[in-house]
């Protein structure tokens, strides 16, 4: 694996007194997360912190994505909490994967709680965020969850455009057939 070679080079860098920078950590952690090597990625995050280099928003998002890929949703929620404390918002795709993953696992209450928490942190008026989440839920057949989100959208003052209505109608009609795309 090429990331093993990169990790060996990383070790040699340290042995020769060459201090890794944020870009070095970003590249290594991103690669490890792609390969779902979360434990090794976490070790590098810890090492970067010991060296005074804080993880970037991108690194946090890669770690959340990796947790979701491994169906470690509780860990992903905890990581979102850390991100928010550092002033970072999860990328829209991470947000969708986490909330949809929690729904997939039957953890509806945690999915809703995570969704509401993120609403209060900056996504509440972003119609694109709502559409992405609604689409993700419809793809998984969670029409009822989408209905709840629409109610929250309306209460939050977010207008529902015709495209979103059409998406919901298509989801409701195709739920019986399992053909939502």
From TrEMBL:
Keyword field contains Repeat: yes
Any one Pfam family match given in the protein's UniProt record, by short name: PPR
InterPro entries found in the cross-reference section: PPR_rpt, TPR-like_helical_dom_sf
Record key words, sorted: Repeat
Domain of life: Eukaryota
PPR repeat windows: 21-55, 56-90, 126-160
Signal peptide annotation: none
Gene3D superfamilies associated with the record: Tetratricopeptide repeat domain
PANTHER family: OS03G0856100 PROTEIN (PTHR47447), PENTACOTRIPEPTIDE-REPEAT REGION OF PRORP DOMAIN-CONTAINING PROTEIN (PTHR47447:SF28)
Family according to the record: Belongs to the PPR family. P subfamily.
Name this protein carries in UniProt: Pentatricopeptide repeat-containing protein
Annotated source species: Sesamum angustifolium
């Amino acid at each position: 694996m090429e990331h093993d070679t990169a990790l060996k080079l990383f070790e040699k860098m340290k042995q020769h007194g060459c201090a890794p920078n944020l870009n070095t950590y970003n590249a290594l952690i991103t690669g490890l997360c792609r390969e779902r090597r979360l434990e090794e990625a976490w070790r590098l995050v810890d090492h970067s912190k010991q060296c005074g280099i804080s993880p970037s928003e991108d690194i946090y998002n890669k770690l959340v994505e990796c947790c979701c890929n491994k169906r470690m949703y509780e860990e992903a929620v905890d990581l979102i909490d850390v991100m928010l404390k550092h002033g970072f918002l999860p990328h829209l795709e991470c947000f969708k994967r986490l909330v949809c993953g929690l729904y997939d696992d039957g953890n509806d209450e945690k999915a809703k709680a995570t969704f509401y928490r993120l609403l209060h942190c900056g996504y509440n008026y972003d119609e694109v965020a709502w559409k992405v989440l609604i689409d993700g839920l419809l793809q998984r057949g969670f029409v009822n969850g989408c209905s709840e989100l629409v109610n929250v959208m309306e209460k939050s003052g977010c207008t529902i455009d015709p495209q979103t209505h059409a998406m919901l109608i298509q989801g409701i009609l195709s739920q019986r057939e399992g053909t939502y795309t």
